[in-house]
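This entry is passed on directly below:
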Amino acid sequence: MTVSPFVAGLQCRCPRCGRGELFDGVLSVAPVCSACGLDLKGQDSGDGPAVFVILILGALVVPMAILVEKLFSPPDWVHFVLWPPVILAGAILLLRPFKATMIALQYRHRSL
Protein backbone atom coordinates (compact mmCIF):
# COMPACT_ATOMS: atom_id res chain seq x y z
CA MET A 1 0.00 0.00 0.00
CA THR A 2 1.35 3.40 -1.01
CA VAL A 3 1.10 6.17 1.55
CA SER A 4 0.21 9.61 0.21
CA PRO A 5 3.03 12.04 1.05
CA PHE A 6 0.46 14.72 1.81
CA VAL A 7 -1.52 12.53 4.21
CA ALA A 8 1.68 11.35 5.90
CA GLY A 9 2.91 14.94 6.05
CA LEU A 10 -0.25 16.41 7.52
CA GLN A 11 -0.39 13.64 10.12
CA CYS A 12 3.40 13.88 10.77
CA ARG A 13 3.77 10.14 10.19
CA CYS A 14 6.40 7.91 8.60
CA PRO A 15 6.56 8.41 4.81
CA ARG A 16 6.81 4.66 4.17
CA CYS A 17 4.16 3.09 6.42
CA GLY A 18 2.08 6.10 7.52
CA ARG A 19 1.82 4.73 11.07
CA GLY A 20 4.98 5.60 13.01
CA GLU A 21 5.67 9.05 14.42
CA LEU A 22 8.01 11.12 12.24
CA PHE A 23 9.12 13.50 14.99
CA ASP A 24 10.93 12.66 18.20
CA GLY A 25 10.50 16.15 19.66
CA VAL A 26 8.94 19.39 18.54
CA LEU A 27 10.84 19.55 15.24
CA SER A 28 13.53 16.87 15.50
CA VAL A 29 13.09 13.86 13.25
CA ALA A 30 13.04 10.48 14.99
CA PRO A 31 16.06 8.25 14.24
CA VAL A 32 13.87 5.32 13.09
CA CYS A 33 10.18 4.70 12.50
CA SER A 34 8.68 2.93 15.49
CA ALA A 35 6.27 0.98 13.26
CA CYS A 36 8.27 -0.16 10.22
CA GLY A 37 11.89 0.52 11.21
CA LEU A 38 12.65 2.97 8.36
CA ASP A 39 15.95 4.73 9.00
CA LEU A 40 15.05 8.40 9.32
CA LYS A 41 18.44 9.71 10.47
CA GLY A 42 19.34 11.14 7.06
CA GLN A 43 16.00 12.85 6.48
CA ASP A 44 16.39 16.60 6.12
CA SER A 45 13.79 18.97 4.77
CA GLY A 46 16.18 21.89 4.42
CA ASP A 47 14.91 25.46 4.59
CA GLY A 48 11.98 25.02 2.20
CA PRO A 49 9.27 24.53 4.84
CA ALA A 50 10.51 27.52 6.85
CA VAL A 51 10.27 29.77 3.79
CA PHE A 52 6.67 28.73 3.15
CA VAL A 53 5.75 29.17 6.81
CA ILE A 54 7.29 32.66 6.91
CA LEU A 55 5.39 33.70 3.80
CA ILE A 56 2.09 32.25 5.01
CA LEU A 57 2.41 33.77 8.49
CA GLY A 58 3.36 37.12 7.01
CA ALA A 59 0.34 37.03 4.71
CA LEU A 60 -1.93 36.26 7.68
CA VAL A 61 -0.46 38.28 10.56
CA VAL A 62 0.27 41.56 8.78
CA PRO A 63 -3.35 42.08 7.62
CA MET A 64 -4.58 41.08 11.08
CA ALA A 65 -2.23 43.62 12.71
CA ILE A 66 -3.39 46.31 10.30
CA LEU A 67 -7.03 45.43 10.99
CA VAL A 68 -6.49 45.60 14.76
CA GLU A 69 -4.74 48.94 14.34
CA LYS A 70 -7.50 50.40 12.18
CA LEU A 71 -10.40 49.10 14.30
CA PHE A 72 -9.07 49.65 17.80
CA SER A 73 -6.03 51.97 17.54
CA PRO A 74 -4.33 50.30 20.53
CA PRO A 75 -1.06 51.59 21.98
CA ASP A 76 2.11 50.16 20.46
CA TRP A 77 2.78 47.91 23.45
CA VAL A 78 -0.39 45.95 22.67
CA HIS A 79 1.04 44.99 19.29
CA PHE A 80 4.36 44.05 20.93
CA VAL A 81 2.54 41.79 23.38
CA LEU A 82 -0.08 40.37 21.01
CA TRP A 83 1.73 39.39 17.83
CA PRO A 84 4.93 37.58 18.91
CA PRO A 85 3.01 34.73 20.62
CA VAL A 86 0.69 34.47 17.60
CA ILE A 87 3.67 34.27 15.24
CA LEU A 88 5.55 31.78 17.45
CA ALA A 89 2.54 29.48 17.87
CA GLY A 90 1.71 29.72 14.17
CA ALA A 91 5.30 28.92 13.19
CA ILE A 92 5.45 25.83 15.39
CA LEU A 93 2.00 24.60 14.34
CA LEU A 94 2.70 25.09 10.63
CA LEU A 95 6.34 24.02 10.54
CA ARG A 96 5.73 20.44 11.71
CA PRO A 97 3.32 19.43 8.91
CA PHE A 98 5.25 21.39 6.27
CA LYS A 99 8.53 19.74 7.29
CA ALA A 100 6.87 16.31 7.42
CA THR A 101 5.32 16.81 3.99
CA MET A 102 8.67 17.84 2.50
CA ILE A 103 10.33 14.74 3.98
CA ALA A 104 7.51 12.52 2.69
CA LEU A 105 7.77 14.04 -0.79
CA GLN A 106 11.54 13.53 -0.79
CA TYR A 107 11.06 9.93 0.30
CA ARG A 108 8.38 9.35 -2.34
CA HIS A 109 10.55 10.71 -5.14
CA ARG A 110 13.67 8.99 -3.77
CA SER A 111 15.80 12.13 -3.54
CA LEU A 112 17.17 11.09 -0.15
